[in-house]
Write a structure and sequence with these properties.
The chain is an alpha+beta fold.
Length: 668
């Protein structure tokens, strides 16, 4: 059941909203919690907290003094401003509703929980066809995000426990400048008070709920580009333009950076720092060879030889067995009264605007269980206008799976989005945007209206930089972004969206594609029937029925390398020299990770971590369950020797084979 404070807030809103205005003294008499308070001062403090909650909820609560008696204060909810919220078209509302579903609201905290409820309170109907075609996004959802975003907006510092890559967690005191998404992960960039310098923190490594730490003292830079900040961490004076030889239709991201064709065997990368190039090449080393510069080529051969050597024979597991298991960080986020109250108001508003709604439909729209929804309706049932008697309580019923709400007109109103909630929604939009296709204009217009909400916040410091497509893709220059999103990507997206719009069963609902899989050499030709687009972090996937596989399969959109005529024969890849890395690793995988490779444990959702000190340095042991084989091998190679597979032996042997093959190519 709801807490007492939620019922009280609902009664206050109903009592004030049911009349033109009500004076403070009468309000204190008719609201039971105020009337029963232990003292007048206790009632005053309770009411002040409630006023702040109502305003934060997005309701325009107004206080006015009597012109003839300054001691009399009246309260009302400004009906004239009740419509001063987002003015959205049906299409804009639909993509925002899709964006709100990008969050795991159970883990993300208050802002994410309130967003969907407040959208539903707007009273719009979504376009079901557009909603079906809109990509399903997934944003990294963390309970620490709401207080971090709030700190940026309010100009306050925060303190939290943070586990960096080099040891045990320690308290950090930070003045946040920007909170944004890069390559699917959230980062905090701000002024570290203890180190007296700017620092970047990965939000997933924050192990306590951020607490306020006073007002910020350090001036916030006028312009902050999170991508540029992260790029500088891999910068180096050793820069050059690398020349590569690659298998046709492979190393696609490198081809995009170079602006090279899909079948070109040799191409040149733009001028980039050596550490960044080494990491990029190692992650795609199965398909390529570095030709120039010679010094970088020799270094690559040495790194691959080292990786192969460290995986020869059986691994020593004694250090892993002695290491201490790291307790999981458990950041409990208790739902706030504002979270629950916004949902209750949205339930009432949504149902009253439609006369009646099926329980299952309402449950799906709000993203809560039917059990939770019935609990919400039971709360509405015992609340109402306390100023006239029990006959003015809200009427709520849900018999036979049909929900009706009456006598709750004060709740039939749209709720304003706060700047923090708008920023959370912007992140959801950014997750959809790379695969938005023909809905891109709608996404952009919805983004513009949300930005107006964020930037229109009065008397506040500069708002956080809203997450954009730039912040959820790898760090690249403007020319490289243009190359990656040029003809091929646009043609694929346009064709996919056209197939999703087509009549099911029609020829237009099917596509013939050439697909370059990450787990095997060559390409395949497949006939598919697109079902929907999904985005996870910086990656976009197409779920489709595949005739070749005779079932549903997921295809990475950027690996659909070509659209082919409908009559093209289907085919599987020709066997090549490289090993086939299909499927998942059987059973568990244990890794030994040096600090530079800790990202692997996070990217593959390690189920257990153990910490040890070896030779004066920290080491982490990570246990993974059934990771996908090809990305697992690529990640170990990308770590440049900072990660070692301990078990199973079959995976160690695969690493040896791939690393040795790459070393031989670069040693010739």
């Amino acid at each position: 059941m709801a807490s007492k404070s939620v019922e009280r807030l609902l009664n206050v809103i109903m009592t004030i909203g049911s009349r033109r205005r009500i004076d403070r003294a009468k309000l204190f008499r008719v609201i039971p919690d105020y009337a029963d308070a232990v003292s007048d001062q206790a009632a005053e403090r309770m009411f002040e907290r409630d006023k702040a909650s109502i305003i934060e909820l997005g309701l325009p609560l107004v206080a006015e003094r009597d012109l003839l008696d300054e001691n009399t204060v009246y309260y009302r909810i400004d009906a004239a401003r009740s419509g001063a919220v987002l003015e959205l078209t049906t299409e804009e509302y639909t993509v925002l509703l899709a964006a709100s579903r990008a969050w795991d609201t159970a883990a993300a905290g208050g802002a994410a929980r309130r967003v969907r409820a407040k959208l539903l309170s707007l009273g719009h109907d979504a376009d079901p066809d557009l909603l079906r075609r809109t990509p399903r996004g997934a944003v990294e959802s963390l309970p620490v995000l709401t207080p971090l975003l709030q700190a940026v907006v309010s100009g306050n510092g925060v303190r939290f426990m943070y586990r960096g890559t080099h040891g045990a967690p320690s308290e950090r005191r930070v003045e946040p400048w920007v909170v944004g998404v890069h390559d699917g992960h959230w980062y905090l960039h701000g002024w570290d008070r203890d180190r007296e310098a700017p620092r970047v923190f990965r939000a997933s490594r924050i192990e306590s709920f951020p607490a306020e730490a006073g007002s910020a003292d350090q001036p916030r830079p006028e312009q902050i580009d999170l991508t540029e900040v992260l790029e500088r961490m891999l910068d180096s004076d050793d820069r050059d333009s690398a020349v590569l030889r690659a298998a046709p239709f492979k190393a696609l991201s490198l081809r995009d950076r170079a602006g090279a064709s899909l079948e070109a065997q040799t191409f040149r990368l733009p001028d980039l720092p050596r550490p960044a190039v080494r990491r990029l090449l190692l992650s795609d080393i199965r398909w390529l060879e570095l030709l120039e510069p010679t010094g970088w080529r020799e270094e690559l051969a040495e790194v691959l030889t080292t990786i192969a050597a460290m995986h020869e024979g059986e691994a020593d597991l004694s250090s892993r067995d002695r290491a201490e298991t790291r307790p999981r960080a458990r950041i409990r986020v208790t739902p706030q009264s504002g979270d629950h109250l916004s949902r209750l108001i949205s339930v009432a508003s949504y149902v009253m605007s439609r006369d009646e709604v099926q329980l299952a439909e309402l449950s799906e729209a709000l993203g809560v269980s039917e059990k939770q929804l019935i609990s919400d309706l039971q709360v509405l049932f015992v609340c109402g206008d306390m100023g006239t008697g029990w006959e003015d309580l809200i009427e709520a019923e849900w018999e036979h799976g049909t929900v009706r709400v009456r006598n709750a007109e004060p709740l039939r109103r749209a709720l304003n989005l706060s700047s923090v909630e708008s920023t959370a929604l912007l992140a959801g939009l950014a997750a959809l945007e790379p695969a938005a296709g023909q809905a891109a204009d709608v996404v952009e217009s919805a983004r513009t209206k949300l930005l107006a909400v964020v930037e229109g916040t009065a008397e506040r410091p500069e708002p956080p930089a809203a997450p954009t497509r730039t912040e959820i893709t790898a760090a690249t220059t403007a020319d490289e972004r243009a190359a990656r999103t040029a003809d091929r990507a646009e043609q694929v997206l346009t064709a996919v969206h056209a197939a999703l719009r087509a009549e099911p069963g029609s020829a237009e609902a099917r596509l013939t594609i050439r697909y370059s899989s990450v787990d095997r050499p060559g390409t395949s030709v497949r006939r598919i029937r697109p079902l929907r687009i999904e985005t996870v972090g910086a990656r976009s996937y197409l779920l489709a029925h595949c005739e070749l596989a005779e079932g549903e399969r997921r295809f990475r959109l950027d690996r659909i390398v070509e659209l082919l005529p409908a009559g093209t024969s289907m085919s599987r890849p020709e066997p090549g020299d490289q090993p086939v890395l299909a499927g998942r690793v059987e059973g568990e995988v244990w890794l030994r990770l040096a600090p530079a490779a800790h990202w692997i444990a996070e990217s593959f959702d390690a189920v257990e971590l153990r910490d040890a000190v070896e030779d004066g340095a920290g080491a982490t042991y990570a246990r993974l369950v059934h990771p996908v084989l090809a990305p697992m091998v690529d990640a170990v190679l990308e770590s440049a020797g900072a990660a070692e597979v301990l078990t199973p032996e079959t995976l160690r042997n695969t690493i040896v084979t791939v690393a040795h093959g790459g070393a031989v190519r670069h040693a010739q």
